[in-house]
Write a structure and sequence with these properties.
Blueprint (H helix, E strand, L loop, with lengths): L1 H14 L5 H9 L1 H6 L7 E6 L11 E6 L2 E6 L3 H8 L8 E2 L2 E2 L2 H14 L3 E7 L2 H14 L2 E2 L4 H14 L6 H7 L2 E5 L10 H5 L15 E6 L16 E4 L5 H12 L11 H16 L3 E5 L6 H18 L6 E4 L6 H12 L5 E2 L6 E2 L6 H6 L5 E6 L14 E5 L3 H6 L2 E4 L9 E4 L6 E4 L10 H10 L2
Parallel strand pairs: 6-7, 6-15, 8-9, 8-11, 9-10, 11-12, 15-16, 16-17
Antiparallel strand pairs: 1-2, 2-3, 4-5, 4-17, 7-13, 13-14, 18-19
The structure holds iron/sulfur cluster (SF4).
Iron/sulfur cluster (SF4) binds next to α4.
Length: about 450
C-alpha cells in the first residue's frame, strides 16, 4: 500500500502543472523522499512582509501561514486582509472554459498572440519581473501595451511632460510636512494606512511634533475623520465640487501671488476661507499638496494637477513646498517605470512597426477595443482575482489570480501566483523613490506572470 501511495504521489506531482518546478525535480530525483516531503505550507510566522495590495507598499506586516491559510497578525488594513487572506481556489488552466494542462494553455496562448496582427497587452497588474516579461513579449508580437490604471497615469504624465513638477516622498512628508493639503482625495479611502504610517506617527526625524501638523481638505464628499489629530484638532475642510477643484486651486495660486480676486463665481464666504488658507500656506514651513489622479474627474484632472504643480513651483521661489501623487496601485508605478526604461516612453506604446511608437491617447485599451483595432488581447491581473478584463469579442488570453469567473470567460485562462504571496518580486512605491522586495509567504504552486509570459514567448 505504501508503494501505491508513493507511486500515486510521485505521479500526481510530476504530471500536475501547478507543482513548483523545484519540487518536481526533487520528486524525480528522490521519489521515495517525495512522500515524506514537508507539506507545501508549514505553519510559520513572517515578519516585515511587504503588502502589495496598494501602492503604499507597507513593509511592516506580520502574518501567519497556518497550513497554507494566511492570517494578518499585525499592521494590516481591510484591503490587506482581503488580499492576503483570500483563499484562492485550486484551479487548472482552461481553453474555451475546459480544463487543460499548463503546457496546452501556453501553446494555445502563443498561437493566439503569434497569429494576431495587432495584439494588445493590458491590465498588467504585475511586479517588475512580470512587467519586463510583458514588454519583451510586446516587442516580439508587435503589441500595444497599456495598464489598467493607464487613464490616471497619463494625466500625471502629461503634466510632467509639459511643465514639470516638484514632488516629495512619503518619508519626507512624514518627517517634514507641517501642513498637508489634500485636493480631491482624502488620502485614506484607497490608501488605508496613509495616516497611520505617514501623518500621525510618533517619530519625526526633524523633530516635528505629531499633533503639530495642519490638515486641509479641498473637495467634495471626502472622508475627513482621519484628519483629526490625536489630540483632537479638527482639519480645515473647504468644500467645492469636483468640477471646480482646478478653479479653487487657481484662486489659491492667485491669492498667494498677491493678486486680488473679483470673480462672481466664488461666493464671499468661500473667498474669505481661501484667503485665510492662503495666508496659512504662506506661513507653513513645508506644505505638501496631495492628489490622486484616479480620484479626480477625468475631464478636469490634468488641469487640476497642472494648477497644483504650478502652485508648488511658485511657492518654492521664496520658501519650500512639494506635491505628492498617490497613484499606481496594482503594479501601476512599476509598469510605468519598466515601460519607460525598456521603450524610452511612459505608457502607452505600440510595437507594431517594429519599434516603440508612443501615443498616450490612441493606445488606451478602451480606445483600441472600442475601435476594434486589436485582434487579440492578453490581460494580466495577478493581485486581484476579480479584476475582470474589458468585454470584447476578440480572442482573449487571461492571466489572473485564480478566479473561476475569469476562467469561464477567456479563450485561454491561466491562473498565476500573486507577487508577495506566492513568489518573490519587487514593486515601486507610489512616490517612485523606493523599490521594495516582496517575499514568498505560501506555496500554492502557481507560477509567476514572468514565468508564464516567458514560456509563451519561447513558443513563438
Ligand atoms: S495601506 Fe495598502 S499597502 Fe498598506 S497594508 Fe493596506 S493595502 Fe497594504
Amino acid at each position: 500500500m505504501r508503494v501505491n501511495i508513493i507511486v500515486s504521489y510521485v505521479h500526481r506531482t510530476l504530471t500536475h502543472d501547478v507543482i513548483q518546478p523545484a519540487q518536481k525535480q526533487a520528486c524525480f530525483r528522490y521519489p521515495f523522499f517525495s512522500y515524506f516531503m514537508a507539506p507545501l505550507n508549514q505553519s510559520k510566522t513572517f515578519k516585515d512582509v511587504t503588502c502589495p495590495f496598494c501602492s503604499l507598499l507597507c513593509d511592516d506586516i506580520v502574518l501567519n501561514n497556518q497550513s497554507g491559510g494566511l492570517t494578518i497578525r499585525q499592521n494590516g488594513c481591510p484591503k490587506a486582509v482581503r488580499g492576503f487572506q483570500r483563499q484562492d481556489p485550486h484551479i487548472q488552466p482552461t481553453i474555451h472554459g475546459k480544463e487543460s494542462t499548463l503546457d496546452e494553455a501556453i501553446a494555445h496562448a502563443a498561437e493566439i498572440l503569434g497569429k494576431a496582427r495587432q495584439p494588445i497587452i493590458t491590465g498588467l497588474g504585475t511586479d517588475v519581473s512580470g512587467s519586463r516579461a510583458a514588454m519583451s513579449l510586446a516587442e516580439i508580437t508587435g503589441a500595444i501595451v497599456d495598464h489598467s490604471h493607464g487613464d490616471a497615469a497619463v494625466k500625471n504624465i502629461m503634466v510632467l511632460q509639459t511643465s514639470g513638477w516638484m514632488l516629495t516622498t512619503l518619508s519626507e512628508l512624514k518627517n517634514r510636512a507641517d501642513m498637508i493639503i489634500f485636493i480631491g482625495t482624502d488620502g485614506h479611502s484607497n490608501y488605508p494606512r496613509f495616516y497611520d504610517r505617514f501623518v500621525w506617527q510618533q517619530d519625526s526625524l526633524s523633530g516635528l511634533k505629531k499633533n503639530a501638523r495642519e490638515i486641509v481638505y479641498i473637495g467634495n464628499k471626502l472622508k475627513t475623520l482621519k484628519g483629526i489629530s490625536p489630540d483632537g484638532k479638527k482639519p480645515t475642510v473647504i468644500k467645492c465640487t469636483d468640477e471646480s477643484l482646478g478653479e479653487t486651486v487657481s484662486v489659491i495660486r492667485t491669492l498667494l501671488n498677491g493678486n486680488d480676486i473679483t470673480s462672481k463665481s466664488i461666493s464671499n464666504r468661500k473667498l474669505s476661507d481661501l484667503k485665510k488658507l492662503s495666508g496659512r500656506i504662506k506661513h507653513a514651513s513645508y506644505p505638501v499638496f496631495v492628489w490622486a489622479a484616479g480620484e479626480l474627474i477625468p475631464a478636469h484632472s490634468e488641469l487640476t494637477i497642472h494648477s497644483i504643480c504650478e502652485l508648488v513651483k511658485e511657492l518654492n521661489k521664496s520658501s519650500r513646498a512639494a506635491g505628492l501623487s498617490l497613484a499606481g496601485s496594482n503594479g501601476g508605478v512599476s509598469f510605468l517605470n519598466v515601460c519607460t526604461w525598456q521603450s524610452g516612453y511612459p505608457l502607452r506604446v505600440n510595437y507594431t512597426a517594429g519599434y516603440p511608437h508612443y501615443d498616450p491617447y490612441n493606445y488606451a485599451t478602451t480606445e483600441v477595443l472600442g475601435k476594434t483595432e486589436a485582434d487579440a488581447m492578453l490581460w494580466v491581473s495577478s493581485f486581484e482575482a476579480d479584476f475582470i478584463p474589458p468585454q470584447t469579442s476578440i480572442p482573449t488570453v487571461v492571466l489572473s489570480r485564480p478566479s473561476i469567473k475569469n476562467a469561464l470567460d477567456a479563450e485561454v485562462y491561466i491562473p498565476v501566483g500573486t507577487p508577495g504571496l506566492d513568489h518573490t518580486g519587487n514593486l515601486f512605491r507610489t512616490d517612485n523613490a523606493v523599490n521594495l522586495p516582496l517575499k514568498q509567504v505560501r506555496q500554492t504552486g502557481y507560477q509567476s506572470v514572468s514565468d508564464i509570459l516567458s514560456r509563451i514567448q519561447d513558443r513563438l
